[in-house]
């Protein structure tokens, strides 16, 4: 018995030494990028528009200097239902890590039995308790690969959650700007209806005194109908913008929020870094990297599943029975120690197919990373180009508004001195309102594109303290 014990201990030592063999680490981020995008794919500067080539900064929400917007984003982060779903996904991924990690530890169980004598023939029942321990020695890393895959899945889900928060903040900001834009457009449309009604009254007066005819009256009435229709469309658009914002906030969509009465000032140039910075910063891309790593560990797990499994078992306890008491070599309490081996021999190619499936899944994860990376770069270049274009258009439309304001002033002067009439004054007023509506839309679009650019670059809307 002593020799057998020494041999068992020696075997256990060898197995524990083998158990400490490390698993193969998954590819690093740079290796994944190279595998997905190839060498020398990324330029050293953006091509879509003007940007500051310094490190991307956090805290973009504060650049709009709008405390009400800050409060709305905070409310959305606290109450948005979709974000709560993302939290549940994160908690579930953490629980899966616990399940996968549990297999690394010994499994302990207890079994008890007892009997009640009801007659002379039932006097040999077993009474006692047995403690059993089993432990699979992870010689080839199968269990560790499974745990590491679960950890990578958790890291990916954490990044998905961070990306969901960034996207929610951006959506709330854009909805807020749209609500203000539609309010301003609605006000301009109301002024246009009033101006058109003034033109109609003038047309009727001119027709009555013989200075005009019924064609002018009908034409003015048609203009009013068109402007009224536009006002109704803008009213609905404004209410829909408010409802969309309220849904993001987790509120009932009743269009009850009071929007701003003007658009915030546009921030200055944005620090956009270089293209590779985006791939390093964006949480959704980091999540995609971790899914490549998860797939790599799944391959290791599938390969290790083709190798033998060795388990140690131990049990001990105390039992009593009239039959056991008749055995001379039975001692109480008792204990036992053993080991078991199970090796797959023939499973119809199932294990080989699992390795092939996991390998394909890893390539799919790399291809998905490549697709997402190119889409991220596309979003940045598009936003930079749009911001540049909108900036130029805003200057042109501001000039157009100023020109129409000057023209309206001159028409009013001419009307006062008798060289013009009210119809020309009101017509110029309509032209001015059209120019103002175009300018409002471009200003709002520029703010929206700035938010989209911040999001595309991977900038955090919160201020992160540097360590």
In short:
With 467 residues, this protein is an alpha+beta fold. It has eleven helices and four strands; from the N terminus they run ααααββααααβαβαα. It has one domain (23-107, 140-307, 350-457): Outer membrane efflux proteins (OEP) (Up-down Bundle).
Low-confidence stretches: 1-5, 120-124
Q: Which class of secondary structure composition applies to the elements?
A: alpha+beta
Widest sheet, order of strands: 1-2-3-4
State the domain count: 1
CATH architecture: Up-down Bundle
Number of strands: 4
* Backbone shape: elongated
Order of helices and strands: HHHHEEHHHHEHEHH
Distance between the termini: 60 Å
CATH class category:
Mainly Alpha
Largest sheet: 4 strands, antiparallel
Number of H- or I-type helical stretches: 11
């Amino acid at each position: 018995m002593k020799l057998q014990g020494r041999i068992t201990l020696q075997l256990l030592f060898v197995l524990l030494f083998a158990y400490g063999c490390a698993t193969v680490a998954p590819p690093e981020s740079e290796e994944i990028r190279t595998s997905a995008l190839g060498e020398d794919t990324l330029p050293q500067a953006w091509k879509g528009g003007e940007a500051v080539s310094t490190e991307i900064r956090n805290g973009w929400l504060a650049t709009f200097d709008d405390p009400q917007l800050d409060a709305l984003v905070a409310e959305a982060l606290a109450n948005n239902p979709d974000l709560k779903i993302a939290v549940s996904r994160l908690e579930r991924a953490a629980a899966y890590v616990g399940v996968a990690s549990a297999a690394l530890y010994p499994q302990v169980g207890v079994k008890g039995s007892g009997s009640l004598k009801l007659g002379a023939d039932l006097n040999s029942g077993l009474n006692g308790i047995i403690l059993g321990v089993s432990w699979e020695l992870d010689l080839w890393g199968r269990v560790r690969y499974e745990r590491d895959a679960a950890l990578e899945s958790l890291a990916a889900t954490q990044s998905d959650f961070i990306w969901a928060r960034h996207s929610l903040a951006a959506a709330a900001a854009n909805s807020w700007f749209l609500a203000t834009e539609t309010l301003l457009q609605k006000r301009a449309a109301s002024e246009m209806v009033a101006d058109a009604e003034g033109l109609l009254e003038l047309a009727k007066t001119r027709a009555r005194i013989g200075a005009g005819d019924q064609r002018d009256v009908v034409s003015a009435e048609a203009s009013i109908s068109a402007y009224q229709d536009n006002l109704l469309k803008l009213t609905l658009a404004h209410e829909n913008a408010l409802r969309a914002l309220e849904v993001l906030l987790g509120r009932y969509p009743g269009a009850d929020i009071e929007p701003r009465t003007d658009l915030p000032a546009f921030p200055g140039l944005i620090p956009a870094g270089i293209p590779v910075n985006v791939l390093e910063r964006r949480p959704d891309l980091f999540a995609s990297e971790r899914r490549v790593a998860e797939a790599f560990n799944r391959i290791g797990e599938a390969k290790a599943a083709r190798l033998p499994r060795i388990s140690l078992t131990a049990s001990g306890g105390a039992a009593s029975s009239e039959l056991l008491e008749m055995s001379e070599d039975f001692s109480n309490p008792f204990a036992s120690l053993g080991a078991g081996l199970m090796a797959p021999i023939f499973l119809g190619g199932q294990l080989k197919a699992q390795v092939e499936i996991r390998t394909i899944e890893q390539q799919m994860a790399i291809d998905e990373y490549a697709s997402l990376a190119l889409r991220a770069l596309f979003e940045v270049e598009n936003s930079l180009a749009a911001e540049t274009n909108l900036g130029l258009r805003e200057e042109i439309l501001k000039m157009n508004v100023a020109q129409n304001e000057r023209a309206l002033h001159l028409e009013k002067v001419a009307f006062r001195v008798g060289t013009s009439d009210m119809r020309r004054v009101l017509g110029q007023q309509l032209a001015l309102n059209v120019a103002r509506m175009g300018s409002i839309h471009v200003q709002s679009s520029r703010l929206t594109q700035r938010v989209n650019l911040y999001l595309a670059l991977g900038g955090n809307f919160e201020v992160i303290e540097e360590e």
